[in-house]
Design goal:
- It is built from 17 helices and 26 strands.
- By secondary structure, it is an alpha/beta fold.
- The strands form 6 sheets. Strands 2-1-10-9-11-12-13-14-15 form a 9-stranded mixed beta sheet. Strands 16, 17, 19, 20 and 21 form a 5-stranded antiparallel beta sheet that branches. Strands 4-3-5-6 form a 4-stranded parallel beta sheet.
- The longest helix is centred in the N-terminal third of the chain and has 17 residues.
- Helix 2 runs antiparallel to helix 3 and helix 3 packs across helix 8.
- It starts with a helix and ends with a helix.
- Adenosine monophosphate (AMP) binds next to strand 13, strand 20 and strand 21.
Length: 510
């Protein structure tokens, strides 16, 4: 409790590493496929990175981290924050065109990469340095770093994560130190994390679920084990990895949980050390949740909800009873320091069982989209039910209602945003990419819920093939956004006001 009271007074997440390095210098902080880093080593290297940033005269600026998921990536995040700057994790699998769009929006002060990607990154024409080069510097001068860090306040940015944008350009969501500090207080308290915990990380670092893993470990001295990405192609092997690495907590997207449950392996394996099974990012079906609960009854199961525009999560539900396959699993109630209001079509608070849009208030709400006041003003607005003082809310675009028990039930999206295998995708980003391909006159992407795939309709007189078109699309969008099916039409159906008739196109899928 004492730790938590003190923690709420912190103003920079790097203070976490100050504590854990003091207590557990020799203890492993992060383990990846190539080895481990202790808390002591991480702090020494992070300070070197910070000193370099200070020398470059950058402050409160974005620092991009273009690295494979690794302990070096976590160290770069912390180093960036020590210097009073904020980090932006980039997906090394994203096509260069998408990265260039992000960099054009950001104009970062620095890009941290490794030897393998150095030449590619230097082509972006921005200041670049390798993490290896930074970590081989002599010990940092603490006073230099401290003078930068102490100029920061807790409402300053800690990170920015880019998420799919409907106009074709990804949006950089900026989150404050305060948002992460309050969220991690809640997470550590709710899941009883101590230095003995071991968190098995699944989330890519350019996806905000990783915030839970990284900062719960940095605050408590727990170990973060980065699960090799290739293992996720073999769900049957994942529980073995959890067992062999004594993992105590997993925070995975439902897609992974479903694949593991469907593989049948859960009933054949004992995971005595596993205590918390946490999921977030998309609907978790009860059929697969029940398989997990039956096979591993010793665990606490938690359904977390939150968009990137919040410091990861804003509601939670600890599963306290069995649910029928056809039931909706609640997303629960607001986390500490967060408040949820459900606004109906009249912009009033919806009554119990009345559906409306989930709107979020609290310290975790994003500072806005970096360098994009227009879309920021649309999504982050004055609370319409509070005319008395300035109170920002984030309109999520998610539909929900509060049931008789006071629990929030998620109903789906109000727009063209979809989730495919846990990845957030604006269908507009795919359509914009398709429009860049020669011979495409019109594009409309729809999500086929039954088969869980994106179907791309294109208007063209040419005979396109899916594989060939996807080769073109790969230049603009990441693999997880590629359509699974293609329909070529000479002319799209239109609505009365001359918009592409998405409903008719979707219905044609049967
Ligand atoms: P992202 O920004 O990638 O975290 O995606 C956020 C979106 O994922 C939300 O706006 C919801 O539509 C969906 N989502 C997140 N958590 C849940 C959940 N527990 N159940 C259902 N949908 C969820």
């Amino acid at each position: 409790m004492l730790l938590l009271i003190k923690n709420s007074m912190r103003k920079n997440v790097t203070e976490y590493l100050d504590i854990t390095e003091g207590l557990y210098s020799e203890k492993i902080a992060v383990e990846d496929a190539n080895g481990c880093i202790t808390f002591g080593e991480m702090k020494r290297n992070a300070l070197k990175i910070a000193e370099f940033c200070v020398e470059q005269n950058i402050f409160k600026q974005p620092v991009c981290v273009y690295l494979p998921k690794s302990k070096e990536m976590v160290t770069s995040f912390v180093g960036t924050n020590y210097s009073g700057n904020f980090y932006v994790p980039l997906d090394i699998k994203s096509p260069d065109t998408r990265i260039r769009n992000i960099l054009a929006t950001l104009n970062p002060g620095l890009i941290i990469t490794d030897e393998e990607h150095k030449d590619q990154v230097e082509n972006f024409g921005l200041p670049t340095v390798t993490v290896g080069c930074l970590c081989s510097r002599k010990e940092a001068d603490l006073s230099v770093v401290e003078s930068a860090r102490s100029r920061q306040i807790d409402t300053d940015p800690v990170y920015s994560i880019f998420t799919s944008g409907s106009t074709g350009i990804p949006k950089g969501v900026v989150i404050s130190h305060r948002g992460v500090i309050d969220y991690i207080d809640w997470a550590v308290d709710t899941f009883h994390f101590t230095a003995d915990a071991k968190i098995g990380n699944q989330a890519p670092f350019y996806f905000d679920n990783s915030i839970f893993d990284i900062y719960s470990c940095l605050l408590t001295g727990a170990k973060m084990v980065i699960i090799p990405e290739t293992l996720f192609m073999f769900p049957v092997k994942l529980p073995e990895f959890v067992r062999d690495n004594d993992i105590t907590t997993i925070f995975w997207v439902p897609t992974v949980m479903i694949n593991v449950a469907n593989s049948g392996v859960l009933s054949e394996i004992e995971l005595p050390k596993l205590k918390n099974v946490v999921f977030c990012g998309e609907v978790m079906p009860n059929t697969q949740l029940n398989i997990w609960r039956k096979a591993q009854p010793q665990c606490t199961y938690a359904n977390l909800y939150g968009p990137t525009e919040i410091s990861d999560v804003c509601t939670y539900y600890i599963v306290d009873r069995p649910f029928k396959d056809s039931d909706s699993l609640p997303i629960g109630k607001a986390c500490e320091n967060m408040r949820i209001i459900i606004l109906n079509e009249k912009n009033e608070i919806a009554k119990t069982n009345e559906q409306g849009e989930i709107c979020v208030i609290g310290t975790g709400v994003s500072l806005g989209y970096w360098n994009n006041p227009e879309i920021t003003q649309k999504a982050f607005i004055q609370n319409p039910v509070n005319p008395y003082y300035e109170e920002r809310i984030y309109r999520t675009g998610d539909l929900a209602y509060v049931n008789d028990e006071g629990l929030i039930i998620y109903l789906g999206r109000m727009d063209n945003q979809v989730k495919v295998k846990g990845n957030r995708i604006e269908l507009g980003e795919i359509e914009n990419a398709a429009m860049c391909v020669g011979g495409v006159k019109g594009a409309c992407a729809v999500f086929d819920e039954k088969n869980q795939k994106i179907v791309l309709f294109i208007e063209s007189c040419e005979a396109f093939r899916l594989r060939k078109l996807n080769l073109e699309l790969k230049k603009y969008i990441p693999n997880y956004m590629l359509p699974g099916d293609l329909v070529v039409m000479e002319k799209f159906p239109h609505t009365a006001n001359d918009k592409i008739d998405r409903v008719t196109l979707k219905k044609s899928l049967g």
